[in-house]
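Query protein
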Amino acid sequence: MIGRGLARIGLFLLMSLIPLQMVRAEPILIAHRGASGERPEHTLASYERAIDQGADYIEPDLVLTKDGVLVARHENEIGGTTDVADHPEFADRKTSKQIDGVEMVGWFTEDFTLAELRTLRARERLPDLRPANKRFNDLYLIPTFEEILKLVRAKEAETGRRIGIYPETKHPSYFAKIGLPHQAAMLALLSQYGYENADDPVFIQSFEVGNLKALRAATRLRLIQLVDAEGGPADLPGTTYADMLTVQGLGDIAAYADGVGPSAAMILAPEGPTALVGRAHDAGLQVHVWTLRMENSFLPAQFQRPDDPQGRGDFTGYVQAIAATGVDGVFSDFPGQARAALSATTH
């Protein structure tokens, strides 16, 4: 109880550092890979649970198959998120590749046709951290992007509300180099399901720059430049994300994107909010922050609860502190709990 009391005091002090004019309406809630804290990520079950919990948008990370079909996986390497290692017929597909300068070993979607991928089943990516999710292992297929769009349409008809799509193009320059570009297939499907204009509930995101610029020339859908505290875009060697987040850099982003997607630590430091949200807003950019998770291992120290039997911290306090910085959107693995925290802040 003392630990929780100190955490609440810390939250009060942290909130007191946030100017009143920065407190905004409830940010949009983006279900990170679906309700991935409760179901294996990037499955129709995960997306549907997120929608049922009130997420405004669901986020599919998009990679491609050998025959050019967009499917949802966090990475094109699928050894950790499927049962592919248990399929002897695919043992010879295991290989080593350089993806954006990083050596990766495993099985890759671009080496499988869609029909072959459909023989696999999804598994929990973080089994040690989320052991309860293992009970859903081997139940769900790898979904195609079109299946996700069909699910959204069905849930819209059921609930009577619009449900947004927030796809991320994963490793777009890598896929383009091997003859499997994202853009045409993704835009064609979005158009087929009625997503074409800036007021449609779609954001397309990428850590790279070139594909966002190409998308800006091809679509009126909104675009988000993802950034991180370290490194830089894989397609712009020598450019860092820090360079892109200066006043000049944010102005350059505003020429081709509608917002930026920074990590949570970039907008809420231990001593209080950083200046990034204000700088981005001054440039006319929205700010959608990733990724809010309940586990202590993902939380800043002031929101951790080391004595919690589930290994979870003060998630409500964390979500509310992030929202109070004035961000326009938040990604979360736990959309139900994030929705409750956001609603308690604004009502």
Residues 2-13+23-74+143-346 form a domain with the TIM Barrel fold (CATH 3.20.20.190). The chain has one domain: 2-13+23-74+143-346.
